[in-house]
Amino acid sequence: MTHSSNRPTPPNYAVIFTSVRTEGEDQGYGKMVEQMVELAKQQPGFLGVESVRIANGFGITVSYWESEEAMRAWKGHAAHQIA
Known about the structure:
83 residues, alpha+beta, Alpha-Beta Plaits, 3 helices
C-alpha cells in the first residue's frame, strides 16, 4: 500500500513511522491507516504524507508538518493516540 502526495518544499518537519506487518494478520491495520491519513489531512499544519511497504512487511511512513507545534498537536490527537 502506498499513500503519496507531492513532497512539500522545505523548510518543514517530518515524522517518520516504521512498522512490520506479518502476512495474513492485518487485524484492521490497513483500515486504521486510511482513517489516520484522512484525519491527518484535516489537521492544521499538515503538508503531506508518503508511505511504502515492501514484500517482507516492513513499511515506512513520513508525514510532513509546517511547524513543531503542528507535529506535536498531531502526536497528541486523541484518535491518533488510540491508533
